[in-house]
Amino acid sequence: MPGRGPAPKAANKRARRNAEPVTMRILPAIIAEQPELPTRYKAKDDEDGTWRDEVDWPMVTVRWWAMWRDSPLAAAFTFNDWSFLMDTALLHAEFWEGNVKLAPELRLREAKFGATPEDRARLRITFAQAEEAETKTATRRSSSRDRFGGVALPQEATGD
Description:
It holds the Pfam family Terminase_7. This protein is mainly alpha-helical.
């Protein structure tokens, strides 16, 4: 008698039968171009409330903003997404200027967009790499044939 405890339920009996099916409302997406980073100020004038003391963006934030522009994820960003990321850019700049208290909020905001492999896995996002991997495998196999007199080695021998 293998194992302990009762046998598991049949697969067709495990699913909740009283759960309502989840339906999603599908709306058309209006894809937006990435806006430029806005002018950044450090202080507000006490008398009339206008912003003064224009400051440059940290170079690391400028590169971070360009990274989002070039990301494959950006192909589906809407105006709202870019607006949220623009607010996040302000946090990013402040963080790199020494306000490390912003790190948790910055991490949470970037995670919403799939900044790390773990974030993308949680969001069920993956990058299509199959064609590139197949090309690399074919190239390795043909080069191993050339090196070993036209005989294809087993995958274990080629490291595939």
